[in-house]
């Protein structure tokens, strides 16, 4: 679309016919993408953005780089939510190539394979699964009954995905109007799953708002785990049952999270960190190879001492 068309849809005054191919974050945008700034804590990212245009309030417009076109509006985040609908892909592709199925792969009855999808060699896809359009699945991968993989997602080699898991559903993203109405932010990214990954039953891995939610090689995910949009799960991480990761959480390699532990969004956890069961992570953990427990979070040894003192108070 052109900026002129987007601006008209949003009720913003702009007569420039520059082509815009999609939406993206401040840091990742290129000259043909539209971005936004709502929170002043990202003002340094604004100064370095490569975006072709930006939704921004007049307050911060003087900080925009020379080659970035300003779309001035009172509520940039709300405008982004409305603009995201313009770039939402079709629910179902009606044209395109039939799915390609590799050698020695078994596709059971009542499996849906979307347009332009590719299934590797020696795969097994069991009864009732849905594989959307433009999905890529590597070699030697097993998909158990009733798994759903939404459009544009990618799964590597030697993976196992258990029954009831949903990969690529929309992230939980909404913007509020002044009168409290929720406006959906369309999630136009995808999910990329590496190789040698096992995902348990009834897990949900949300697609990204922009770009990709990423599960790296060698990850092990237990049953009933939720991974929100734009998370990045590093190589060899282990997520035990009922772990919940909020949006844009980054786990570096070989992090272990115990059952029912969780994170706030937009934080990072250092390599080889262990979070004990029911631990709540609200701030980034920068020092690797430590164990943590509780909520608020303590180093595990301190948490054990604290529990001991509390127990003594009850005697």
TrEMBL record:
CDD domains: LbH_LpxD. Pathway: Bacterial outer membrane biogenesis; LPS lipid A biosynthesis. The active site is at 229 (proton acceptor). The keyword Acyltransferase applies. Residues 18-86 form the UDP-3-O-[3-hydroxymyristoyl] glucosamine N-acyltransferase non-repeat region domain. The keyword Phosphoprotein does not apply. It comes from the Bacteria. GO terms for molecular function: N-acyltransferase activity; UDP-3-O-[(3R)-3-hydroxyacyl]-glucosamine N-acyltransferase activity. Signal peptide: none annotated. Its EC number is 2.3.1.191. Keywords: Acyltransferase, Lipid A biosynthesis, Lipid biosynthesis, Lipid metabolism, Repeat, Transferase. InterPro entries: Hexapep, LpxD, Trimer_LpxA-like_sf, UDP_GlcNAc_AcTrfase_non-rep. One of its GO terms (cellular component) is membrane. It catalyses: a UDP-3-O-[(3R)-3-hydroxyacyl]-alpha-D-glucosamine + a (3R)-hydroxyacyl-[ACP] = a UDP-2-N,3-O-bis[(3R)-3-hydroxyacyl]-alpha-D-glucosamine + holo-[ACP] + H(+). Gene3D superfamilies: Hexapeptide repeat proteins, MurE/MurF, N-terminal domain. GO terms for biological process: lipid A biosynthetic process. Homotrimer. Catalyzes the N-acylation of UDP-3-O-acylglucosamine using 3-hydroxyacyl-ACP as the acyl donor. Is involved in the biosynthesis of lipid A, a phosphorylated glycolipid that anchors the lipopolysaccharide to the outer membrane of the cell. Belongs to the transferase hexapeptide repeat family. LpxD subfamily. This is UDP-3-O-acylglucosamine N-acyltransferase. It comes from Aliarcobacter vitoriensis.
């Amino acid at each position: 679309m052109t900026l002129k068309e987007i601006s008209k849809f949003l009720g913003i005054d702009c007569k420039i016919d520059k082509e815009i191919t999609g939406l993206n974050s401040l840091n990742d945008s290129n000259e043909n993408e539209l971005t936004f700034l709502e929170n002043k804590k990202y003002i340094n990212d604004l100064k370095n953005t490569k975006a072709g245009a930006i939704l921004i309030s007049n307050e911060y417009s003087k900080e925009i780089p020379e080659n970035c076109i300003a779309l001035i509006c009172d509520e940039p985040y709300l405008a982004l939510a409305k603009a995201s609908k313009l770039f939402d892909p079709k629910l179902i592709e009606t044209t395109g190539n039939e799915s390609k199925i590799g050698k020695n792969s078994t596709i059971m009855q009542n499996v849906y394979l979307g347009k332009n999808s590719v299934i590797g060699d020696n795969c097994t896809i069991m009864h009732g699964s849905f594989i959307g359009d433009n999905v890529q699945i590597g070699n030697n991968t097993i998909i158990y009954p009733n798994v759903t993989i939404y459009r544009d997602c990618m799964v590597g080699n030697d993976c196992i995905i258990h029954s009831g898991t949903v990969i690529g559903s929309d992230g939980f993203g909404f913007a509020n109007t002044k009168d409290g109405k929720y406006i959906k932010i369309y999630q136009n990214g995808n999910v990329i799953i590496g190789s040698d990954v096992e995902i348990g039953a009834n897990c949900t891995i949300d697609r990204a708002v922009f770009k990709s939610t990423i599960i790296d090689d060698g990850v092990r995910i237990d049953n009933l785990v939720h991974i929100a949009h734009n998370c990045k799960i590093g190589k060899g991480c282990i997520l035990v049952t009922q772990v919940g990761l909020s949006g844009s959480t980054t786990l570096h390699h070989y992090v272990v999270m115990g059952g029912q532990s969780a994170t706030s969004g937009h934080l990072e956890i250092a390599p080889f960190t262990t979070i004990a069961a029911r631990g709540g992570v609200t701030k980034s953990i920068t020092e690797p190879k430590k164990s943590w427990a509780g909520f608020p979070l303590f180093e595990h040894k301190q948490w054990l001492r604290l529990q001991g003192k509390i127990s003594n108070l009850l005697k």
